[in-house]
Amino acid sequence: MRRFFPSLIAVVVLYLTGCAHIPSSVEPPEVTLADMLPAGSTLFEHRINVGLRVRNTNDFSLSVYGIRCALTVNGRPLLRGSSRERVSIPALSSRVLRLEGVVTALDLLQQFRGMSARENPTYDLTGEIYLTRDLRRSVSFARKGALPSFPGTP
After folding, report:
1. What is the CATH number of the domain that holds 64?
2. Do the beta carbons of residue 111 and residue 78 sit within 8 Å?
3. How buried is residue 5: exposed, middle or buried, by Cβ count under 10 Å (0-12/13-18/19+)?
4. Residue 122: inside a domain
5. Mean of the per-residue pLDDT values for the chain?
6. Are 100 and 81 in contact (CB under 8 A)?
7. pLDDT per position as a tens digit, 60-87
8. Does 5 map to a domain?
9. Residue 67: inside a domain
C-alpha cells in the first residue's frame, strides 16, 4: 500500500499539470459571409462556392476541421453547405474557409419572387464550426446582415 500511494499521487500531479495548458474557456470564433460565387448548375439545383471569414479572437491558435452553415435571405431558406477543410487560425487573426453550398431551383425561384426592388435583402447565416484543441467540440454561430445593393438598383 505504501508503494501504491506515492505512485497514485505522481499520476494525479502529472495529469493535472498536463491539462494546465488547455484553456478553460474558448471564445467562439466570429464567422461572417465573405463572398459567394457560382460553381455550376443543373436543372434542379445550383452550386455556390461560399467564402466564410472565420476570425479567432482568442490569444491562442484554433484548429478547425470542418464547418457547416445555412443561409436564409429575407426569411426564406437559400442554401446549405459544409466543408471538411482543415486549417489552423493563428491567435487574433482570420482565414477565409471555402465551402460548397447547394440551392434548389425552387428555393431560388421563391427568392426572386419575394424580392422587392426597393429594399436591400437581409440575410441570416447560422451553423457550426468544428474545432480541435485536445478535445473535439463544435461551436454554433449566427450572423445577421444586409446584402449590398447591386449597381443600377435604386
Report:
1. 2.60.40.10
2. yes
3. exposed
4. yes
5. 81
6. yes
7. 999 999 999 999 998 888 999 999 989 9
8. no
9. yes
